[in-house]
Amino acid sequence: MHDLAPLTPLGAASPRTDRIGALVIREVTERALASVTCRRGQDAGFAHAATRLFGITPPAPGRWAESGDWSLIWTGPDQWFAEAPFESHEEIARIVKDGFGPSASITEQTDGWVRFDIEGPTVIELMERLCPLPTRRMETGAATRSIIEHMGCLVICRSAGVRFSLIAPRSFAGSLHHALVAAAHSIA
After folding, report:
1. Separation of alpha carbons 33 and 169, rounded Å
2. Distance (Å, rounded) from C-alpha 143 to C-alpha 73?
3. What is the arithmetic mean of pLDDT over 162-177?
4. Are 166 and 155 in contact (CB under 8 A)?
């Protein structure tokens, strides 16, 4: 009998980091992820619970925000992704559900998505090759859905002009990584 071992979205025992020219592409696996949706008619209770649990109000459309261990990413009308360190929030869906009670619908999302952080002085050139968003004008705190090489992704500006996070369905991990690496090589 063999013991089971977790694999990263790219299929390895540990997350991958690529350094290509001035860019760093890092597979991020140390964050837990849950979707949070405000239930109809629960706006006041939802807002109170969000502030109490996360220490921030949920960000407006096209934005993300963080406080302490938590970050919230707007994903659609009355919907956000909640991120927190996996080590202390492995049961993120239960933690968030306990904090919101009946005011929100919560689903575990950690293993359904892949996240790549890309950073470096040429990150804008990389993004411009792959994505139709005006990443050169994106400010820190921006978060929006877009297409990268025909794959639907969340694009999060962590630090304007320097660091972005890309979140895509886990099944796109290999294709998205290949696109990032190929584009990085083209500008290295």
Report:
1. 12
2. 7
3. 98
4. yes
What are the tens digits of pLDDT across the range 94-105? 999 999 999 999
On the CB side of 123, CA atoms within 13 Å amount to: 27
Order the strands of the 31-38 sheet from edge to edge: 64-67, 70-76, 79-85, 31-38, 104-108
Q: List Cα–Cα distances, 8 to 12, 52, 87, 88, 110, in angstroms.
A: 5, 32, 15, 18, 11
> Predicted confidence band at 163 (pLDDT cuts at 50, 70, 90)?
very high
Which residue is listed with tokens 């002009």?
161
Amino acid sitting at position 158: R
Domains of the chain: 17-29+112-187 (3.30.1360.120), 31-111 (3.30.70.1520)
- Give me 147's structure tokens: 């297409």
Q: What is the CA radius of gyration of the chain?
A: 17
How many Cα atoms occupy the beta-carbon half-sphere of 43 within 13 Å?
Answer: 3
Q: What is the pLDDT of residues 67-77, one digit of tens each?
A: 999 999 999 99
